[in-house]
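Q: Hi! First time doing this. I have a protein sequence and I read that you can turn it into a structure. Is that right? Here it is:
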Amino acid sequence: MIGKSPNEQQKHLFLPNLTDFINLQHQLCWLANKLDWQQFEADFAPFYAKVGTPAKPIRLMVGLLILKQIYNLGDETVMAEWVSNPYLPKAVFLR
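A: Yes, that's right. Below is the predicted 3D structure, encoded as structure tokens:
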């Protein structure tokens, strides 16, 4: 079952939006806006089951693979960078 990407448009009462304090002209933000995420969703959706526990969103999986290639990172390293670098999550989920 395909997981859903978080709704980045919804505001949280006590949490600021990342877009409020990062540079939207950063190269990863620019890249995120240029990629055709719907095409990735369409291409990978047939590989997901229709029932069961939802998987991680396709956009997250593709985005992490792209970031691994761009920065030549391993699985554990890309996750450590994901947590510490505010641009990496935005590179995947910015809309």
